[in-house]
Amino acid sequence: MKKYVSRRAVATKRSAIRELLKLTEEPDIISFAGGLPAPETFPHHELAEIAADELREHHENVLQYGLTEGSLTLRRAVVEWLQPLGLRLSVDQILVTTASQQGLDLVSKAFLDPDDVIFCEAPTYLAALQTFSSYQAERIGISMDEDGMNLDILEQQIAVARQEGKTLKAIYVIPDFQNPTGITMSLEKRGRLLEIARREELLVIEDSPYSQLRFAGEMIPAIWSLDTDGRVITLMTFSKVLSAGLRLGVLFASDSELMDVLVRMKQVSDLCTSKLTQHMAARYINEYGMDEHLRMVRACYRKKRDMMIAALERYMPQNEGITWTHPDGGLFIWVCLPDEIDTGKMFPRAIENRVAYVTGSEFYPNGGGKNAMRLSFSLNSEAKIDEGIRRLAKVVREELAAKRVGVSA
Ligand SMILES: Cc1ncc(COP(=O)(O)O)c(C=O)c1O
């Protein structure tokens, strides 16, 4: 049957995270693997009331097809919500998506031909890498500093790729509380990234699922708000701020030609996003307001981050060169173990000890991250975070001891 499979499908590998998520179904495993939002943050009573009312009173509208661009009600609500936060938008610069994963697919479908180059952070969001490769694009990973992508390396890599005669299209970044590292790109780097993109005539794909989840430090303007020539396309999603199950996101493009292409790509993907979910989100924003809700969500994640960092400090072996990031928002902490430890090889031992993480190498487009792992602090209770890190530290300690025996043997 292989002969029927397209080159695109062959290039698309199964997501390791999706496979790992299956483990979370085993009740005694404490999984820090999936980047799932905390269910206690879902405003389910309010959404239930809105949904019931929409279905009772407006069923002719919400059970019908809608505009490909998205419902005006939702786009207006998004403009009003984000305007005070410094994201200046007009309704026609917004395309509603079936969450950001579709945004990534549309952007890839619209702008990436086979062998085109897209630069991204290394490490970066695994499913973005999968999407780019499903369009047979070449993904070039650029290593990260504490304040985001290393732009000197980006410039070098752009020069190398140009010399090799490649077609360069875009730079993909997750500037706020990045998945998987939790790192935030500095304002200075956002400006410089945009200058590079302008000079090199590249699009910037700014993926921002976590920007509204800052629970410490100062807000940094989105790259979108620094853009003057319409080369930035920004993706936002309701997944981590309202509900992942609504499958709802918004894509911003200020250039009308780019927007037109994206709308056409969405048309062939799914005609339109569910009107019911769009109206649920719009009415939630209009009737309850995102500000108060987000205060609760941020407080929830802040507590969980604090608990995970405290547990790492308490349980992880000291003076072994183990490091972890201190994110100011989002859902993830990135842990680097000594070079001799391979978190992939360590994984079965972690499962034996009923704890799970995502191995660092999954997030690298061109290799690397063997000694790293991503921990998500969003899903588990504080007590489970503590217990899970205790288990993980035990596994790490045993792994370090085994390496030492191996070396001295
Ligand atoms: C960086 C990034 N982009 C996009 C997504 C996709 O999210 P969704 O499709 O739920 O909006 C995620 C989900 O974890 C993510 O971390």
Structural overview:
There is one protein chain. The protein is 45% helix and 15% strand. The chain is of the alpha/beta class and 409 residues long. An 8-stranded mixed beta sheet has the order 2-9-8-7-6-3-4-5, sandwiched between helices. A 4-stranded antiparallel beta sheet has the order 10-11-14-13. Strands 1-12 form a two-stranded parallel ribbon. The longest helix is centred in the C-terminal third of the chain and has 27 residues, at 382-408. It is globular. Pyridoxal-5'-phosphate binds at residues 35, 99-101, 125, 174, 179, 207, 209, 237, 239, 244, 249.
Percent of residues in helical segments?
Answer: 40-55%
Largest sheet: 8 strands, mixed
**What is the assembly state of the chains in this entry?**
single chain
Strand content: 5-15%
Distance between the termini: 50 Å
Principal-axis shape equals globular
> Could you say which small molecules are bound to this protein?
pyridoxal-5'-phosphate
Q: Can you describe this structure in just a few lines?
A:
This protein has helices at residues 7-11, 16-23, 44-57, 59-62, 72-82, 99-111, 126-134, 151-163, 187-200, 256-270, 275-288, 290-315, 343-352, 382-408, and strands at 30-31, 94-97, 117-122, 138-145, 148-149, 168-173, 203-207, 232-237, 249-253, 323-324, 332-336, 355-356, 358-359, 372-376. The protein has 409 residues and is an alpha/beta fold. A hairpin with a 7-residue loop joins strand 10 (323-324) and strand 11.
